[in-house]
Amino acid sequence: MAGDTLTSSEYIKHHLTNLTYGQHADGSWGLAHSAEEAKEMGFWAFHVDTLGFSIVLGALFIFLFSKAAKGATSGVPGGLQNFVEWILEFVEDNVKSSFTGKNGFIGAMGMTVFIWILLMNAMDLVPVDFIPYVAGLMGVHFLKVVPTTDPNATMGMALSVFALTLYYSFKIKRPGGFFAELAFHPFPKYMFPVNLLLEGVSLIARPISLGLRLFGNMYAGEMIFILIALLPWYVQWTLSLPWAIFHILIVTLQAFIFMVLTIVYMDMAYTVDDH
Amino acid sequence: MEEAKALLFIAGAILMGLGALGAAIGIGSLGGKFLEGAARQPELIPLLRTQFFIVMGLVDAVPMIAVGIAFYILFAVA
């Protein structure tokens, strides 16, 4: 439920405001106390909640998986080892079926992307007011618990993937080959400016759609959870339970799609077309 | 002011309606093709199901984003 003093639109906006750290208008550094103040901080403003939660979840992932790897036995495996092996095989199957090049790094990256995004998305299933309310009692006024509802996080990951694909494109095909792929593709060579335009747009569209797809899905899901939380408490479960169950599908599916597309884009960087 | 508010509601309705329309066509034809493929080659069902879910996630993303933005417009802006 919304607090008694808040209107519903204030409640929604409050829930969609990040905890921002940056430079105030008077030159001092600190946390923003309102959305307007956060906006004035400009480019060098850090979303402390996004960074914090994503780092904590990443550390959790590394801790759990390294624990499973160190304690691995060839005898009867425990529950954690079974679980980790199951995920590992799942990711390995996907990498093997979509990635044709030779690179030991792709599997590790695919798994990191999958589990990390899965954990960040799963924060959406925590009741919307639970962590922000506890944080509010401790004096933190804005808190957005799902890092993937912040476009900074998703676009950051998408741009990192894009940078990797560019790096491997240059490394595998050499700059000349990469240029040839962009310039001589749909139409014959003498029309290369048109080709360059078409291929350039599709190249730039990849990271944007990759990041915005994840962000949009999680943002919409979070938005609907917030709206459900505005209803009276005795009818909330009739909507939030089915939505949460459906959201489990979206959470896994979006993490899986991000991983598959990462692998496919890396595969594109490795496939050499003959021109 | 009243007119501007009414336009916001109409914008939200169009966002949700057209998004749902596109997704319905997309997922309908996708599911139909999936069933066709499954009926023709039942041994490929596990492979097809994975691909089906990937494409469904891709198709599903756009209307979900539209619904999210529409709700934001309806409840937070208007």
Can you offer a commentary on this structure?
The complex is a heterodimer of chains A (275) and B (78). Chain A is mainly α and 275 residues long. Chain A is built from nine helices and three strands, in the order αββαβααααααα. Chain A has helices spanning 8-15, 35-40, 48-70, 79-98, 105-122, 130-137, 151-183, 192-229, 233-270, and strands at 20-23, 29-31, 46-47. Chain A has a three-stranded antiparallel β-sheet with strand order 2-1-3. In chain A, a hairpin with a 5-residue loop joins strand 1 and strand 2. In chain A, helix 3 packs across helix 5 (105-122), helix 4 packs across helix 5 and helix 7 runs parallel beside helix 9 (233-270). Chain A is globular, with a radius of gyration of 22 Å. Chain A starts with 7 loop residues before the first helix and ends in a 5-residue tail after the last helix. Chain B is mainly α. The mean pLDDT of chain B is 88. The interface between A and B is medium-sized, with 22 and 18 residues.
Q: State the distance separating the first and last CA atoms of chain A.
A: 62 Å
Shape by Cα distribution of chain B: elongated
CATH architect. name of chain B: Up-down Bundle
Give the CATH level 1 class of chain B.
Mainly Alpha
Query: Mean of residue pLDDT of chain B?
Result: 88
Low-confidence stretches of chain A: none
Number of helices of chain A: 9
What is the count of structural domains of chain A?
A: 1
| CA-atom Rg of chain B in angstroms | 18 Å
Helix content of chain B: over 70%
Strand content of chain A: under 5%
Largest beta-sheet details of chain B: none
**Which spans of chain B have pLDDT < 50 for at least 5 consecutive residues?**
none
How many beta-strand runs of chain B? 0
**Given the structure, what is the number of helices of chain B?**
2
